[in-house]
Amino acid sequence: MTGLIDSLFNGLALGSVYALIALGFVTIFKASGVLSFAHGSLLLLGGYLIAVLHDELGFAGALALAVLVTAAVAGLVDRVVLQRIGADPHAAHVATIATIGIDIVLVTDLARRIGGDLLTLGDPWGDAVTDLGPATVADSRIAAITVSALAIGGAFALFRFTPWGLSLRAAAEDAEAAALMGVRLTRVRMLAWCLAGALAALAAVFLAAFPAPGLERTTGQIALKAFPAAILGGMASPVGALVGSMVIGLTEAFTAGYQSDLHVLGEGFGDVAPYAVMVLVLLVRPAGLFAAKGAARV
Amino acid sequence: MNVSHHRPRTIKIALAAAVAAVLLAGTACSSKADGDDADGGADGVKAGPGVSAGTIKLGALTDLTGPYATLGKSIVQAQQMWADEVNAQGGICDRKVQIVVKDHGYDVQKAVTAYADISSDVVALPQVIGSPVVSALLDDIQRDTMLTFPQAWAASLLGKDAVQVLGTTYDLDMIAAVDFLTRTKKVAEGDTIGHVYFEGDYGANALEGSQWAAKKAGLKVAGQKIKATDTDLSAQVSALRKAGVKAVLISAGPAQTASLAGVAASRGLTVPIVSSAPGYAPQLMKTPAAKALEAMVHVVSAAPAVSSDLPGVKKMVASYGKKYPGSPVDSGVLSGYNAAQLLGADLKKACESGSLTREAVVKAHRSQTNADTGLGTPQDFSDVSRPASRSTYVLKPDAKAVGGIVNVEEAHEAPGIEEYLSSRG
């Protein structure tokens, strides 16, 4: 029973951090049609900034500045590099490839700075834990779930209730018509990248916080685990990203927690499980769980 | 018609062949030249690649920009310090020692290129970082009879004449770890112990050792395989707790050890943890898991702690601190310096026998049955199929000590090691 609750909490916490990342993927994809491979390095940038700034600014100040800077860098990457490539569907493919290059540049520089160190982010939760019935949960996990819920709620509110959100949805539906109606596509797109960057920096906090020992040069690679989450949810659906992330987080936690019972599938099945689930879902629903209805492919 | 289609291609192939031939001829010439000038020095010592009348060149294939950059830097600096010390005393065989350092950033392709680049100019490799790198180079190293000390300790690297794993292998360390747990009554017959291990040679070899020793001691092993990118071991801890483990072994990296100890402590799974030597680094003492690490973790290692009282270690730590102020003194410094000293002894012996060819260096190395650098236990290099040492220290993290670790038990051979080695043949 304890094992079950442990795994459930691990899964929810993992899922909520993946959701922050996956929501970034989806927002970018909706706004620009680009699959951003640079997300891992943006996450690492956010984490690195918090790590080097928290001594001087305190955790909250460092977090605020890191979120702003990462958002700005993401926005600039889009405005200065990717938007110049163009806006037609082919250009989106080129831009996707370009993000791989941007990722390599950013990661190489950050990895050089981080070296072999384990950086602590100075978060307020430390290694404190709370007893919830039979299970013990790290405070950083509870914070991850709470903060993710708030941030994701905020992002959804932005999509639904702000002029920018309306423009974003309109542009995603039909960019040309939206532009004719006066939607400034470049700005909508850039702001979407900014939002994704901010969410990535926030995710970095929880990927480096307590159950993990700190920020490493490889922390950004964890962002790749949010890819199957975004894809199985349907690349263009924020709700899908949320559900997908929870599915992936829980899958990972349960396969690792019950590894000994899954012996038939081989050791280390937990690493493959998210992708196995993704493939299974795509077999049944090729466009993802929450694919836009009527997405005609002619 | 066909002919006109084919002709351009034929020309292209011919051109490509010509270019390839020129390139091949070029490399053939250069390696031949290196071999030629090498025969017979003025002092009558027969020389080979990497050895001239005035210098002995050694090679280091290291990682200064990849995941093991900290380790690489420590080893490079420690070995450079050794070379400077040796040269200050007149060198080896009246020749100055020079180390050619190549950074591969843990990229096997780059490492292969780097090896090809330096292999004709050096006599031996006192440092090669990375199990995959060593595996990729094994055939070349054997063919070139290039005495190599890899910074990897998998038993699969034994049995190669030119390759020397220094100290114990991962499996022996884990047999010693199980012995430590049973001897100190931390576990009893019938108990289950966990073993968290990396995929690949390192983890597989360590698991071999723990399973053998556990069977011998009447224990059960609950294995948890992880990857280098797994730095949050919550799920693994849940599983281990479910399995009711009384102790946990870990053969992974420092980040994983920190997460394991931190999570286990926070969940009330306060069982002893014993780590393989690569699973600890002094940087961990600055993470939130430091307290848990100090309280729960022991490390089994063929090398003593850098804070050890051994005179040789003390002297080395002092000179290193003087030469590289600000650089952390970690286990890489110790193992790098130790490897360089052992190689120095081999070169001296080869020189005495009148030849510094690679073959003579390997032969001199294999004739050392009691190589003692004063930096740990003596090693026996004569049996190529057996680990050079069977004795291990038990260490314990300590934030206040140099290198963040202290000796708990002096070096000794765990019971059963001989039986294990014989059973494996």
From TrEMBL, chain A:
Keywords from the UniProt entry: Amino-acid transport, Cell membrane, Membrane, Transmembrane, Transmembrane helix, Transport
Q: Which Pfam families match?
A: BPD_transp_2 (PF02653)
| Molecular-function GO terms, alphabetical | transmembrane transporter activity
- Membrane-crossing ranges are 12-29, 34-51, 57-77, 142-161, 190-210, 222-248, 272-292
The reply to whether 4Fe-4S figures as a keyword in the UniProt entry is no
One of its GO biological process terms is: amino acid transport
Q: Which CDD domains match?
A: TM_PBP1_LivH_like
- Ligase in keyword set: no
Q: Which family does it belong to?
A: Belongs to the binding-protein-dependent transport system permease family. LivHM subfamily.
Name of the protein in its database record: Branched-chain amino acid ABC transporter permease
Automatic annotation (TrEMBL), chain B:
Q: Which SUPFAM superfamilies match?
A: Periplasmic binding protein-like I
Top-rank lineage group of the source organism: Bacteria
Listed name of the protein = Lipoprotein
The answer to whether the entry has keyword DNA damage is: no
Origin species, per record, is Streptomyces fumanus
Keyword Translocase assigned to the entry: answer is no
Which family does this protein fall into? Belongs to the leucine-binding protein family.
Residue ranges that the Swiss-Prot or TrEMBL entry lists as coiled coil: none
Region labeled Disordered — which residues?
364-388
- The secretion signal range is 1-33
Give all residue intervals belonging to the Leucine-binding protein domain.
55-398
Instruction: Please give the InterPro entries that the UniProt record associates with this protein.
Output: Leu-bd (IPR028081), Peripla_BP_I (IPR028082)
Q: Which UniProt keywords apply?
A: Lipoprotein, Signal
